[in-house]
Amino acid sequence: QVQLVESGGGLVQPGGSLRLSCAASGTIFRISTMTWYRQAPGKERELVAAVTSGGSTNYADSVKGRFTISREETRTVYLQMNSLKPEDTAVYYCNWNINYYDYWGQGTQVTVSS
């Protein structure tokens, strides 16, 4: 059984930084694309950033140049968030295709406020 555990959310002032992590545990024999999503109150869930097993990355226009997705070996993916804005406030979820199945993390709250 694969589980994803997220960490790193919190309260930060505008212009600040946070680093989210998503760690996978369990038996893993195949990994594919890992994606960070976020959902703000009253809004639909949206894609933030993605990284393929080959290392290719993709970002939402709203976070390009500010957020960076990266992988450490095969079990941990990070989302470095810089120059945070109030509109980045949301619950952030990792979604990872592992062993041909889509797994979701529990979500971590990011609040950007002064």
Description:
The chain is an all-beta fold and 114 residues long. Helices cover 0% and strands 56% of the residues. It contains no helices and 11 strands. It has strands spanning 3-7, 10-12, 18-25, 31-39, 46-51, 57-59, 67-72, 76-81, 90-98, 101-104, 108-112. Strands 2, 4, 5, 6, 9, 10 and 11 form a 7-stranded mixed beta sheet that branches. It has a 4-stranded antiparallel beta sheet with strand order 1-3-8-7, with no helix packed on it. The radius of gyration is 13 Å and the shape is globular. The chain starts with a strand and ends with a strand. 28% of the residues are buried. The model has no long low-confidence stretch (mean pLDDT 94).
What structural keywords apply?
4-stranded antiparallel sheet; 0% helix; 7-stranded mixed sheet; 11 strands; 114 residues; mainly beta
Q: Write down the secondary-structure element order.
A: EEEEEEEEEEE
Task: Kindly report the average pLDDT value.
Answer: 94
Main structural class? mainly beta
User: Low-confidence parts, pLDDT < 50 over ≥5 residues?
Assistant: none
Q: What is the distance, rounded to the nearest whole angstrom, between the alpha carbons of the first and last residues?
A: 41 Å
Q: Which helices and strands, and how do they pair?
A:
Blueprint: E1 3-7, E2 10-12, E3 18-25, E4 31-39, E5 46-51, E6 57-59, E7 67-72, E8 76-81, E9 90-98, E10 101-104, E11 108-112
